[in-house]
Amino acid sequence: xxxxxxxxxxxxxxxxxxxxxxxxxxxxxxxxxxxxxxxxxxxxxxxxxxxxxxxxxxxxxxxxxxxxxxxxxxxxxxxxxxxxxxxxxxxxxxxxxxxxxxxxxxxxxxxxxxxxxxxxxxxxxxxxxxxxxxxxxxxxxxxxxxxxxxxxxxxxxxxxxxxxxxxxxxxxxxxxxxxxxxxxxxxxxxxxxxxxxxxxxxxxxxxxxxxxxxxxxxxxxxxxxxxxxxxxxxxxxxxxxxxxxxxxxxxxxxxxxxxxxxxxxxxxxxxxxxxxxxxxxxxxxxxxxxxxxxxxxxxxxxxxxxxxxxxxxxxxxx
Length: 318
Description:
Distance between the termini: 54 Å
Order of helices and strands: HEHHEHEHEHEHHHHHHHH
Radius of gyration: 22 Å
Helix content: 40-55%
Shape: globular
Strand order of the largest sheet: 2-3-4-1-5
Number of helices: 14
Number of strands: 5
C-alpha cells in the first residue's frame, strides 16, 4: 500500500484516503509545505491509487508497474530547474484537450509550481477554469504565497507539516542504518525534512557547513577560503538554498544564545565551540539575518547566484 511507505503526514494521507473512498476527485490539488518533506512522493503515490487496476496501489498491476518505471502515458510531470515558462503551459493546454491514452483519467503533476512565470500562470489559470473532465492537476510547492491567489483558490489545499525529530531519527536509523549520533544530528538540523537530512548526510556538505560557521562566527576568516567554499557550493544541487537556510538558522541560534542560558532551543548545537556566541554584537546579528533573507529573495531571479552568495559571505565576515 503506497501511503504506508511514506513517513508521517497522517493528516494529509487520511484526507487523500477519504477522497479516494468517495471517488469524488477534485480537478486540481495544491500540495504545499516546506522543501524535502515528501510532497511530490505523496503526489506520485496518490496517482498510483487513481490508476491502479484494483484501486489499491497494489504495485503489481500493469498501471502500477508503468508508474514505477515512469512510463505511464497518462501521467505528465512538469519539472524544471529554472522557471516554468509559457511554452510549457501551452503544451499542457494542448495535452489536456485530448483523451487519456490508457487510463480513465490523466494526471498532471507540476513540481515547484511557484516557479511559473506570470504568463505561464495565466495560461494555466485558463485551463484550471475550464478543465476537461478527465484531467486532474496536482501543483506541488514549497512557496505557496508565490502562487497567484487566482490559482490557489481553484485548488484543493493539502498541507504537509514538517516531520518530528523522532520520526526523522527513526528514518535515518532504521531505513538508512545510520549510527545513532549522526542520525540524531541530522534529525536536529533538518527542519523536519527528509530531503534536507539526506543533503546533510553527505560528509562533504557537513564539512562545508562547519567551514562557513568558522568564517562568519568564528576566527577562521579568509576571503580566499570563503570564495573557494562558495565555488564548491555552486556545484552542489540545491546547494545555495540549503546553505542560506543553514546561515539563517545559525544566526537565529546566536540570537537565542544571547537572550537565554538554556541551550535546548538551539538547532546547530554541534557548532557551539566555533566561537564565543554570547560576545557577538546584537545589531550585527540582526543586520546579518536581514542580509541572508534579502539574498535568499533575490536568488529566485536570474542573477549570478555564485556572486550573490560569495558577496553575502564577505558581508557576514566582520
